[in-house]
């Protein structure tokens, strides 16, 4: 037994490098230069894990006050004869930041799809942290363009989406028969890859861009399409949201439905219309129209959860087809009813922030 113990100790003692590594916790790192962001004429090195970025101090300091303060700190480590800063970010995030800096804080913002979203998210997080305002403002404007705060802009975006979807369908149904779509465009389905609003909400929360104007249309978009509350994070899912925002979403959906139901069940009151050809039968005609409208409106919104779009569709049909006058109302009363419907639709939109407690 003594001989065996002696031989074991001898093997450990014969490897002083290994023992020194364990005792001193020396970390051996094999560095590799970043393929495009290691500038041979640079004078400062940033590292993320084993990836080295050699940058120009003047360029980096000019674009970011946070990095400028970091580079002014005394007594830093050196590597390859240059000051060396070990960064806490991943190599991918640091790459995104430095690319923005070297491109003059300008970014070419692509369509917001599941493919471009990771890069945009990385840029927004890094530029927010290091206080580079221009890229942040550009990305927020792009988000606000995709999910507008004003109702008129929302309607325009919805109309453009419907047009794109109509061109993306290879077949349409006419008179109950499926026929080729004459507007079919195989390249028009890019919108199917749009990033999910829940991911954008979580990103904006993390970066501090959480005003009601920015978040409200995103919550409404999320309420229109979210059906999955558990399981794998695929499709329309709320997994990125905080517990507080999940609660806001659920409560907001119920409040929107309740307000919509109130509007649908309240027949518009007619004001006096002295000018001819006003008729005594106008009130009965408006009531008859409303009684035909209410059941379908309630049923549709219980299924689709898009009351703003439902009201817009009904108003458009009533105006173009003169449906209200067809029930016996005069032109003046028809205009009153349409104006009241527009008002209720605008109120639904304006109250969204309150419904979601934003």
TrEMBL record:
Domain BTB: 24-104
CDD domains: BTB_POZ_ZBTB_KLHL-like
Pfam families assigned: BTB
InterPro entries in the cross-refs: BTB/POZ_dom, SKP1/BTB/POZ_sf
Stated name of the protein: BTB domain-containing protein
Taxonomic source organism: Steccherinum ochraceum
Classification lineage: Eukaryota, Fungi, Dikarya, Basidiomycota, Agaricomycotina
